């Protein structure tokens, strides 16, 4: 029933006509079709559904001396960005203000699609309720070095002599 069509049947199909199944009394030169045919019936009303992929948005978020890169679907909310930043930066969502939106301030429930954002975005986090911490490892090491005295050894090659100077960390070499 689903065997290859004869030439006249193929012409009818190309013209848009229905292809009748070959009858047993047909004088067609093609062999009778078997039950293991490689052909499948074609349903002209079958439509191919194309799924639209969600648009992805890139965010670069600055907070103090840190930068966080995020990629989210356009259907995400501003609150979802803040939740990710809470994990990445260790700043509670309740104390975080996310700034840099072209449309001004937005609420946590705002869907990103409604902001008509470009693919790449730059934002920054403000935390007015959290004082900057000076106890980070870099800052505390720098603070310690400013309070220490260093031994500065200067070698004078022509005179073949070394000079040892006590040097406070709060001074520059020029001083």
From TrEMBL:
Annotated spans, Disordered: 1-42
Gene3D superfamilies, sorted: Phosphatidylinositol 3-kinase Catalytic Subunit, Chain A, domain 1
Lineage: superkingdom: Eukaryota
Stored CDD domains: Ubl1_FAF1 (cd17129)
InterPro entries xrefs: Ubiquitin-like_dom (IPR000626), Ubiquitin-like_domsf (IPR029071)
Domain Ubiquitin-like stretches: 57-126
Bilayer-crossing regions: none
Biased composition (Low complexity): 1-38
Annotated protein name in UniProt: FAS-associated factor 1
Protein's organism: Lates japonicus
Native organism taxonomy: Eukaryota, Metazoa, Chordata, Craniata, Vertebrata
């Amino acid at each position: 029933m689903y065997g290859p069509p004869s030439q006249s049947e193929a012409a009818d199909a190309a013209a848009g006509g229905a292809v009748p199944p070959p009858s047993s009394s047909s004088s067609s030169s093609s062999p009778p079709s078997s039950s293991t045919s490689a052909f499948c019936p074609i349903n002209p009303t079958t439509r191919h559904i194309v799924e639209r992929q969600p648009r992805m948005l890139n965010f670069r978020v600055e907070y103090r001396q840190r930068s966080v890169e995020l990629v989210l679907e356009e259907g995400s909310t501003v609150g979802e960005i803040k939740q990710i930043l809470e994990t990445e930066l260790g700043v509670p969502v309740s104390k975080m203000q996310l700034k840099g939106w072209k449309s001004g301030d937005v609420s946590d429930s705002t869907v990103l699609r409604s902001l008509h954002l470009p693919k790449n975005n730059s934002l920054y986090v403000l935390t007015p309720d959290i004082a900057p911490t000076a106890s980070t490892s870099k800052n505390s090491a720098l603070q310690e070095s400013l309070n220490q005295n260093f031994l500065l050894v200067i070698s004078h090659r022509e005179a073949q002599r070394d000079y040892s100077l006590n040097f406070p960390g709060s001074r520059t070499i020029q001083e």
